[in-house]
Amino acid sequence: MHGLQAWIFDLDGTLTLAQHDFPAIRRQLGIPAEADILAYLKSCAPAERLRLQSELDAIERELAQQVSPAPGAAELIRHLHAEGHKLGILTRNLQQVARDSLAVIGVLDCFAAEDILGRDQAEPKPGPGGILDLLSRWQQSPRDAVMLGDFRFDLEAGRAAGCHTCLIHPENSWPALADWHMPDCGSLLRFLQQ
């Protein structure tokens, strides 16, 4: 892990404390409880999709103002940035929500604007398109990259792109998908500093 050059992070639940109550969001939008929100929106008729997307965008913008950094997240990002690593964000949120969240936790300056990909800039995870776009722009090989996140979609996207994966979560819920497991970003930073 110490030799990896390209670091791609999920946002909510990885660099910020998880705050999305997805069951409540589904109820508010009238989306079936078992449905993936973004996949459901994609399946809607254009007018309905636009209406629901607008409501979802408003929910996410409000949540971005209340965001808190995950333990050790800001320090980890500053450490990797100081070492000259390529840093990217791949989130299923809006790009502007990601930028606002990174600003609130104090690390927006560590990311090039074009390296923060939201759902409108790349196919949503678990699709690998966003990772492959970043690696292409950075001229980096998947074997020199890691996708870090707190959910299986992050790990599945990393696997599909051919890069390493790291689960950032107290429990190792998907051991077959994660090359590394760290309970939080602070633990990862301590590991990298050894």
UniProtKB/TrEMBL annotation:
Matching Pfam families: HAD_2
Xref: SUPFAM superfamilies: HAD-like
Species whose genome carries this gene: Halopseudomonas salegens
InterPro entries: HAD-like_sf, HAD-SF_hydro_IA, HAD_2, HAD_sf
Species lineage: Bacteria, Pseudomonadati, Pseudomonadota, Gammaproteobacteria, Pseudomonadales
PANTHER family, per the entry: HALOACID DEHALOGENASE-LIKE HYDROLASE, SUPERFAMILY HYDROLASE, PUTATIVE (AFU_ORTHOLOGUE AFUA_4G13290)-RELATED
Designated name of the protein: Haloacid dehalogenase superfamily, subfamily IA, variant 3 with third motif having DD or ED
Cofactor(s) this protein requires: Mg(2+)
